[in-house]
Design brief:
The protein has 254 residues and is of the alpha/beta class. It is built from seven helices and eleven strands.
C-alpha cells in the first residue's frame, strides 16, 4: 500500500462533522471512569493553581471535567465540527477555544500546564511539525510550567521489509489493521466497522494516518524547545514505565 496516497488528506478531512458526531463514548473507551478519572486527577495536580491549555481539545472529553475541578482551561482545536460538538456541552466563558493548529497557534496568556492526550501528537505527520508543537507548548508556559504528552510506544516487533501490516484489534463488529512504513515512521490505521443489525458482509472503512515517535525522540524534541524530562510513567495513575510498556505519560518541565 502506498502511504503517500494519504498525504492529500487534511486534518479537516479526517475530523469532519461525521467524526465529531461519533467521537464521544460516554462511560466507555476513552471516557470510561477508570481511564478519564486518573487523567483528570493527574492534570489537575500538575496545573496546581495555574491555568491549563489543551492542544487538540476536541469535544472536551478531558477539558470539561478538568474545568469542573476548578482549573481554568483553554483549548486549541483545528476541527470546527469538533468545536461545535464541544459548544453543545459548555459555553465560551466556561471553556474558551481558539480555532487553529497545535503546532503554530498562539493563545493569549501564560499557563502552568499545556497537555496533549491520547496519542494526539502523532496526528502531526512530520518531525518538523512535532518539534514545532513542542516549541509552541514551551512558548505558552510560564517558568516552571510543564508540557504533558500521552503517547503509545511503537512496537515494531516482527516487522519485515519496508512496510508491514498487523491486526491491532479484532472484536465483534470492529477490526483495526495498522499499516506501517518504518522509513517515514508513518502508521496508517484502517478501521473496519460492521453493522451488527444488518448484513455482516457490509462494512464501513475509515483511515487515520499517524507519525509514531520513540520516547527518546520526544525527549530530544523537548530539549530543542528548552524543556527537560521530569518524569515518565506507564499510565496516568503513575505506573512504572518498563521495557514492555505499551504507552507512556511524559512530563516535560520548562
Amino acid at each position: 500500500m502506498d502511504l503517500t496516497r494519504l498525504d492529500h488528506l487534511t486534518q479537516d478531512d479526517l475530523w469532519d462533522a461525521r467524526a465529531a458526531s461519533a467521537y464521544d463514548t460516554p462511560g466507555r473507551g476513552m471516557e470510561a471512569p477508570e481511564v478519564l478519572g486518573p487523567t483528570v486527577d493527574r492534570l489537575a495536580e500538575l496545573a496546581g493553581d495555574g491555568a491549563a491549555l489543551e492542544f487538540a481539545v476536541g469535544t472536551g472529553r478531558v477539558a470539561i471535567p478538568l474545568a469542573e475541578r476548578g482549573v481554568s482551561v483553554t483549548g486549541i482545536e483545528l476541527s470546527a465540527p469538533m468545536i461545535g460538538r464541544l459548544r453543545e456541552k459548555v459555553g465560551e466563558q466556561t471553556l474558551p477555544v481558539v480555532h487553529g493548529d497545535m503546532a503554530t497557534t498562539r493563545v493569549e496568556g501564560e499557563f502552568s500546564l499545556v497537555y496533549l492526550v491520547f496519542n494526539t501528537i502523532s496526528n502531526l505527520l512530520t518531525q518538523d511539525e512535532q518539534v514545532a508543537c513542542f516549541r509552541n507548548a514551551a512558548a505558552h508556559l510560564r517558568p516552571g510550567g510543564c508540557f504533558v504528552v500521552e503517547l503509545w510506544v511503537p512496537d515494531l516487533t516482527g516487522s519485515a521489509g519496508r512496510e508491514s501490516a498487523r491486526v491491532g484489534v479484532a472484536q465483534d463488529g470492529y477490526v483495526l489493521v495498522d499499516v506501517l512504513d518504518p522509513v517515514t515512521q508513518r502508521l496508517t490505521s484502517h478501521h473496519f466497522r460492521f453493522d451488527q443489525d444488518e448484513d455482516r458482509r457490509a462494512a464501513t472503512v475509515s483511515r487515520t494516518p499517524h507519525r509514531y515517535v520513540w520516547p527518546a525522540e520526544l525527549d530530544l524534541m523537548a530539549q530543542l524547545a528548552g524543556l527537560h524530562l521530569e518524569s515518565r510513567h506507564a499510565d496516568w495513575a503513575g505506573g512504572e514505565f518498563l521495557a514492555d510498556s505499551g504507552s507512556h505519560v511524559s512530563v516535560y518541565r520548562r
